[in-house]
């Protein structure tokens, strides 16, 4: 496996720590990606997403959805089961889990619904107006520009 040194990226950039950390995390992954529980990530609209996680066998009280430090953390811990039950075959896994999803800037969790063995988490990207692109009108009045330049010189 190749290893990459990201030190030059850290040395020569300011404010891109999140990207560098994400690359570092992806490159250092040992390949043992957890597969339980299975999930889907769905794009509903340009700025709307849904994460659906199969949580069969868990009640609402067993599940936890939390947002902490730009990460969505979904975890489940099954309450102690009745020891009197004897299974001939047990194919529905209800073992504890914790699944993390790293959220991009301006992505907010807007809700979560647990129905029919699925946990659906709604996400919305809400970009502030100041960061949205805006069109600058091009004028043809050169005197207005020269007046602003003269005013700026008199101030300095």
Automatic annotation (TrEMBL):
UniProt-listed InterPro entries: A-crystallin/Hsp20_dom (IPR002068), ACD_IbpA/B (IPR037913), HSP20-like_chaperone (IPR008978)
Secretion signal span: none
Domain SHSP: 30-141
Pfam families, alphabetized: HSP20
Annotated keywords: Stress response
UniProt entry tagged with the keyword Heme: no
Family per record: Belongs to the small heat shock protein (HSP20) family.
Name of protein: Molecular chaperone IbpA
